[in-house]
UniProtKB/TrEMBL annotation:
CDD domains: USP-like (cd00293)
Designated name of the protein: Nucleotide-binding universal stress UspA family protein
One Pfam entry name: Usp
Superkingdom of the source species: Bacteria
Coiled coil: none
Protein family: Belongs to the universal stress protein A family.
Lineage of origin: Bacteria, Bacillati, Actinomycetota, Actinomycetes, Micrococcales
InterPro entries: Rossmann-like_a/b/a_fold (IPR014729), Universal_stress_UspA (IPR006015), UspA (IPR006016)
Amino acid sequence: MAVVVGFIPTEVGFAALAAARQEAEQRGGPLIVVNVLREGVDEDPRHANDQQLEIARDELRGATVRVAFRQETVDDDIADVLLRVVTEEKAELLVIGVRRQRELARHLLGLTVQKLLLSAPCEVLVV
């Protein structure tokens, strides 16, 4: 069954990508890599440009499962986009990365992560 990874072009994002690849290969794939773009926001460090997507593709070359990349545009809620993709792909696992620089207890992992953990119709792996 499918594994979906929410990808951002950061150290944490690449760690999530590696974990998602491993999980997809163990589960028989495919691996769907999703980068969410905020509509109307040009300079967001979470938006992967062509070069960053190519680096991610290089990281996944040689994977033993099918790999697909999707860039989805959202005007509001990133979690809703990832949940929609999980449902569309009938994924059995969603992989997300969490920045470790922030104090986790402050907002109990942030609203997006909370929503994903509470609403995902599948297992969620937090890297």
